Amino acid sequence: PSISIKNEGQAIELLRKALEDQFENENVRLNFKDWPRLRLEYKGEKFKGTITPDIAKALVELQEAMERVYMQAVHGTTSRVGLDQSEKRALELVATVEEGSSLIDVNFGDFAEKLAAEMVGKMSSTEIIIAVIGVSVVFTAGWAWKSHLKNRSEEKQLQLENESRLQLSQQETERLRIVTDAMRRSPVVQTADKLVEEPRNAFIKSATEADTFTIQGGVSITGEEARQIYRAARISSQEVQLNGTYFIEGFQWTSDGETA
Hints:
The chain is an alpha+beta fold. It is 48% helix and 16% strand.
């Protein structure tokens, strides 16, 4: 059967059924409709339909993390060395930048379908569903980001204003439990959970000069809170007008920190 997934709720329900082995001896094909995607909104003087070098670098780190997850699932290694050009093109994440504030919208749908297709013949339908849905949720779920921000602030013993906004709801806690079960079942989901840390931290760093940074339309932090959580030296950002749709191919830095 073919299963279409339009939102996180449907994805979690499908993942739950897969963890209960409800797809044994079935050949399931996954289709993604407007999910998974990641929406990050920056508000502030420097964020009016623009993208800074720090945001660009974070997007590249996100791309590289997804490629490494793909390599783990399909080729059994997290090294990107063996990724050929056709695979790179097929795995390109598409990001759009909208005007007003800087609203970054990253579509993971093509990546998820490519990952699922390449795992056919290597894993059972149950294993494919657990891996692909698990990876997609780990990289995009707003509550996963909320949990990350809470853990980072606790590690650094920070007293953030209105800390209740980082508390998971009952529904979010249940979704976390299901995804944690998926990590126990799937090395691919475990790998994604480890690799997502760097791009998450890079996006937090990119928000240090924003007034507010909002993830998936849910939890928001201020630029000052981002600085406290990241605790990195402040750097000077440059604005680049990049409205529209673009592909993330690479980003380089020279030794003095200017874009190359």
